[in-house]
Amino acid sequence: MNKARSLSHLLSALPEGISIFVKIPRHSQVNFHTFYKKFSSAPPPPTALSSEPFLNGSSSNYIEVMYQSWLQDPKSVHQSWDAFFRNARAGASPGEAYIAPPSLAEPKPNHIPLAAVTPVVTGAAATIGTTTGVPEKIIDDHAAVQGVIRAYQIRGHRIANLDPLGINVADPENAQELVCRGYMTQFRDEDKDRHYKLPRTTFIGGNEKTLPLKEIIKRLENAYCKSIGVEFMFLNSLEQCNWIRKRFETPGIMKMDNPEKRLLLARLTRSHGFEAFLARKFSSEKRFGLEGCEILIPAMKQIIDKSTSAGVESFVMGMPHRGRLNVLANVCRKPLEHIFTQFAGLDTGDEGSGDVKYHLGTYQERLNRVTNKNIRLAIVANPSHLEACNPVVQGKTRAEQFYHGDSEGKKVLSILLHGDAAFSGQGIVYETFHLSDLPDYTTHGTIHIVVNNQIGFTTDPRYSRSSPYCTDVARVVNAPIFHVNADDPEAVMHVCNVASEWRTTYHKDVVIDLVCYRRNGHNEIDEPMFTQPLMYRKIRSLNPVVEKYANQLIEEKVVTKEEVEEVKAKYEKILDDSYKNAQTITQVFNKHWLDSPWSGFFEGKDPLKVSPTGVHEDTLVHIGKKFSSAPPNASDFQIHRGVQRILNARMEMVNERVADWAMAEAMAFGSLLKEGTHVRLSGQDVERGTFSHRHHILHHQKVDKSKYNILANLYRDQAPYTVCNSSLSEYGVLGFELGFSMTNPNALVLWEAQFGDFNNTAQCIIDQFLSSGQTKWIRQSGLVMLLPHGMEGMGPEHSSARLERFLQMTSDDPDVLPPFSEGFSIRQLSEINWIVANCSTPANYFHILRRQIALPFRKPLVLMTPKSLLRHPEAKSSFDEMNEGTSFLRLIPERGPASQNPDEVERLIFCSGKVYYDIIAARREKGLEDKVAISRIEQIAPFPHDLVKTECDKYSKAKLVWSQEEHKNGGAWTYVQPRFSTILHDERKLHYAGRPASASTATGNKKKHVRESLDLLEDTLTG
């Protein structure tokens, strides 16, 4: 501070108990306002004037301005302050520099009334003017300096040197104007050498409290306008903003020591060397290499190192295809031989069709040599739907945290890699971000890395997004965003350190935007000059970043040229040796690419044996009574009267030994919980149930957030039960639950759509992961999809779950009749890609849910669930159908009068689901119980060939009819018809009874719906 002592010393010279009193005129107004800043806990003195406290730091600003004025002219301040400043500069100890002003009217003990001052308030900070006679420009300059600092913090990233290509760089002549706007116009050249007080919201001063203006600007530009651009001022936490400021503004904070620089160069050499090796050996193959963003590998390894040192043991990662092979090789340390054999076109030695090499996942356990700790690394397999793996990764991460008791996310971390065009363009990114802070979906912070090619395939960013940055979607969840020039390796390392530390400290999402380029086209065969000639002319003139950084370290004398070549040659030898070993391999194994191994799950099990699904009646009764009862402290827990009526009705069912749909579901869940199986039910409004039938969570009617989870309180030593309402997302939440189900095979994970047709917006997860995941990636999943389905006259949108789509994607052959040998039904399940069912009884629903855990393998289960049947008086099951010795019925045969005289039966109707109850009501009305037999196919896929054949043989003279409520081009008709033909060898024909083909799933006209339903029943029974 020139010759002056520091302001902190001046303030310390004030005696204890002193308060500063300042009168501030509001420009031309006559009224005065009293502001005070206390330096002790004593209350402010009484005053006839209105009082209000200073803003933070404003008293220090006031004294500083007055002190600067005193330095220029000691007479410009009151004589008491003149004496104080002289004594303080002379070295007076605290309390001795202060001299009470003489002869002031009505002096108040320990308080100094000061002369009037002029206020200047800008933004959130208030800078108090000085006493009469101080130039107004000094006051304005101090306010402007604070504006300059804040402007760089908010907008400095706009002029940062982020683009390695130098294409998207602001005009240097106008750069400062872009950030500071009008703040700098008032400063003269001589003003830039003057010292200014630094506010508490900056750390550019280090230990200094004041700096000249030119030094302030220089340090701000170093912090915010070099190779790093920081977006964080939108955060709504002052603590978090200051945390970030400190890590970018503190002088010298980005420096790396020589060992760190050598490690960085070695990792960069491996990243570059791997791509160069593949380019030489497999020049005609697509590999979606990392050239242009080789820094990604050191960046990921730095994040892993930093996070591991903070206690993280497991990393779950998801990424698109660009750079995947390099990540597998140099981050996960996947054996290089396994990668090279993927280029060889060898036959597979195990199940599955496999996938292209740049979609595959992996799981590795290895020692982190930097931290000397064992870590687990998993990369989730991903299709070309670039961001589709995001929620899958999050679900898998959440499951690992759950099963490891990691309630704060300290042991398991998710890392998501993105492309710039996909990050801004794919809605699933937004859906996944919105799960980040939801209690039952949070993973306690994800580190996002955007490989920003500045182009999407051939599309310029100006035509692929409307936001300034591809990362703007992250702002919606208050995630800080660190843009960094990928050709500045040390800047990237600093950003990675800060991001890792942020996640460790706050357990919130953070985004690293690696601004880079794509040296080749979209793939190695593509020609980018067709569409981006100027960009690629520039790219081809650039040296790889590894060469630039190696030359930099050679100049800094950190390494020698010989050491650089030695590191390169060493890795080249590793690649060559692995390549030679790969040539001796004759088969590839898909199991080597499994991203979610289930250690010990398949060992020692009979693949054709299913554990019993029936339950002892005592268990059913216990669960039923608990499910029908209020909380134990019912006197303190007020239940809604409507819910109490539901509980009473449930208790009546228990006493009558029957269960409706909700009761059967609760008994299935409860019995699994008793046996130690975790149950997780997720989806929109699942706690209550869309149709107000479930009520697994009871809400206190007068106390907010007071809830009772019934099924979580059945037994003292039961497994946990998670039931959680989700965000209004299908794609994201279904993907999340799929990821959750992949982690632990001994858990029942269910996702329920609010209405069955809502699965339309989750089709990518259904098609790319659920139906084909095991075939492509050897990934099994026992995920259950509950899809409310049925034609209830409610219009086209909430009628059909599109049963036909799931059946069309099943992998069984309609023209092949499998041999009916022992274990036929289980072998069918093991060979098909998923199970599709449309149950008609609560008991069958109970058994099929329990069977998911009883099977010796895992398959996705697609269940068409009812709406009107939830309360249908005939849709109830006796406890006798769920007791020990009972099991799931793939087909429920006719059990009425018609079954006693099959030769007299004229018509055998096959159907599935809710329509059965409509048919039996119409049959009863027409008096056809002995002439018409009805068989219900409960499990549609895999098709119960053996049971269908038995029924057809039993009613050999009957006309065969398939009845469905869906339109002819929907429902199960197109699936069952060719299979019936195969069973019957075309000797008998299956007739269709139902609605005609239609583009819409249902009519929106109630009267037309009723007419269609009557026609359907007439056609079924007599047509």
UniProtKB/TrEMBL annotation:
Enzyme class: oxidoreductase
Entry cofactors: Mg(2+); thiamine diphosphate
Record field: catalytic activity: N(6)-[(R)-lipoyl]-L-lysyl-[protein] + 2-oxoglutarate + H(+) = N(6)-[(R)-S(8)-succinyldihydrolipoyl]-L-lysyl-[protein] + CO2
One annotated Gene Ontology cellular component of this protein: nucleus
Domain Transketolase-like pyrimidine-binding per the UniProt entry, residue ranges: 659-872
Any Pfam family the entry gives: E1_dh
Domain of life, per lineage: Eukaryota
GO MF terms held by the record: metal ion binding; oxoglutarate dehydrogenase (succinyl-transferring) activity; thiamine pyrophosphate binding
UniProt KW keywords: Calcium, Glycolysis, Isopeptide bond, Magnesium, Metal-binding, Mitochondrion, Nucleus, Oxidoreductase, Thiamine pyrophosphate, Transit peptide, Ubl conjugation
Localization of this protein: Mitochondrion; Nucleus
Gene Ontology biological process: glycolytic process; tricarboxylic acid cycle
SMART domains: Transket_pyr
CDD domains in UniProt: TPP_E1_OGDC_like
E.C. number(s) listed in UniProt: 1.2.4.2
UniProt cross-references to NCBIfam families, sorted A to Z: 2oxo_dh_E1 (TIGR00239), PRK09404.1 (NF006914), PRK12270.1 (NF008907)
Purpose of the protein: The 2-oxoglutarate dehydrogenase complex catalyzes the overall conversion of 2-oxoglutarate to succinyl-CoA and CO(2). It contains multiple copies of three enzymatic components: 2-oxoglutarate dehydrogenase (E1), dihydrolipoamide succinyltransferase (E2) and lipoamide dehydrogenase (E3).
Family affiliation: Belongs to the alpha-ketoglutarate dehydrogenase family.
PANTHER family: 2-OXOADIPATE DEHYDROGENASE COMPLEX COMPONENT E1, 2-OXOGLUTARATE DEHYDROGENASE
Identification of the protein by name: 2-oxoglutarate dehydrogenase complex component E1
Lineage, broadest ranks: Eukaryota, Metazoa, Ecdysozoa, Arthropoda, Crustacea
